[in-house]
Structure to design on (329 residues):
């Protein structure tokens, strides 16, 4: 069950740039003020819900192309400020980090560890104060699998004392309660939605258009070179992403048995006339394909045609490929 987030602004089920209702991390200025997204620890989003009879709050941080290397810019003043703010709320039981690892606050002065620590401290304090009645507060960190630079263990002290080559796995191991931090790949988090979008088909379509890597393993195009009409045509194939889904090259080879010049869009198609299958042939081959490869979710037919394939109505696209009218089934 989802509950409204009481942030005094949105009044909805999701809040943004969440800094907590109180100054848990001692970050207020001389006037006692804090600003969302500036000079205060914030999570990109917050949601509150009930699960198994427990009221939970989830702080959410998402990354895309970020990467880190050198430590924070420091001075005697900035180091003193950070120590005064955080030193007493870093280590258990007053903070989230294990106290038996021989680490100091200064060892976290390297991104992404510095942000990870501050957000985890925020979650820890929110849970201790039972903010909005939350019995548990956790952090969900989302990042694309391909962004390997983001996962580098940048802190020399943490690298030496703890080891490991994935910053998020290493950070989780530093926590007194490791399950309070969840690291999720963007691809795996959104995969269920993209496979079965239902009423969220429009949003799923936006996600795969905006973030092409989300659809890389779920969609492929087979291009057929120009036939007598002088037009190339494309078949777009949606894959389930499950273990029974064939690799892209297996699907390509299937078509090449009937049409040798068929190529994936990432390849360079040859210009062989009279080698473009008719819509009827495509429909027949599509049925064969789905029988051979149950992991395929749907295929849609050639440019300029609109007909039913496997019970799904396809419609033409100006880009030359067709997609189901309500998004992938």
């Amino acid at each position: 069950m989802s509950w409204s987030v009481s942030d005094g602004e949105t009044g909805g089920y999701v809040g943004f740039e969440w800094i907590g209702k109180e100054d848990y991390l001692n970050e207020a200025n001389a006037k006692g003020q804090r600003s969302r997204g500036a000079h205060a620890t914030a999570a990109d989003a917050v949601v509150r819900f009930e699960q198994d009879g427990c009221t939970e709050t989830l702080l959410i941080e998402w990354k895309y192309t970020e990467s880190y290397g050198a430590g924070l810019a420091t001075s005697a003043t900035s180091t003193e400020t950070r120590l005064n703010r955080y030193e007493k709320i870093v280590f258990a039981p007053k903070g989230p980090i294990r106290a038996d690892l021989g680490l100091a606050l200064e060892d976290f002065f390297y991104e992404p560890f510095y942000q990870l620590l501050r957000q985890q401290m925020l979650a820890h304090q929110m849970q201790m104060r039972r903010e909005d009645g939350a019995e548990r507060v956790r952090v969900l960190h989302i990042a694309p699998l391909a962004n390997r630079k983001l996962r580098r263990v940048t802190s020399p002290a943490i690298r030496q004392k703890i080891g490991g080559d994935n910053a998020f796995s290493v950070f989780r191991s530093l926590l007194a309660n490791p399950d309070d931090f969840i690291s999720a790949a963007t691809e795996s988090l959104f995969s269920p939605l993209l496979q079965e979008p239902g009423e969220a088909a429009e949003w799923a379509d936006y996600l795969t258009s905006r973030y092409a890597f989300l659809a890389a393993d779920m969609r492929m195009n087979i291009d057929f070179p120009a036939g007598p009409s002088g037009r190339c045509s494309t078949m777009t194939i949606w894959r389930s992403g499950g273990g029974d889904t064939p690799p892209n090259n297996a699907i390509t080879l299937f078509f090449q048995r009937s049409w040798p010049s068929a190529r994936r869009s990432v390849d360079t198609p040859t210009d062989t006339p009279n080698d473009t299958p008719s819509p009827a042939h495509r429909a027949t081959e599509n049925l064969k394909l789905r029988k051979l490869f149950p992991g395929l979710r749907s295929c849609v037919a050639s440019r300029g045609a609109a007909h039913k394939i496997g019970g799904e109505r396809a419609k033409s696209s100006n880009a030359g490929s067709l997609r189901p009218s309500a998004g992938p089934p």
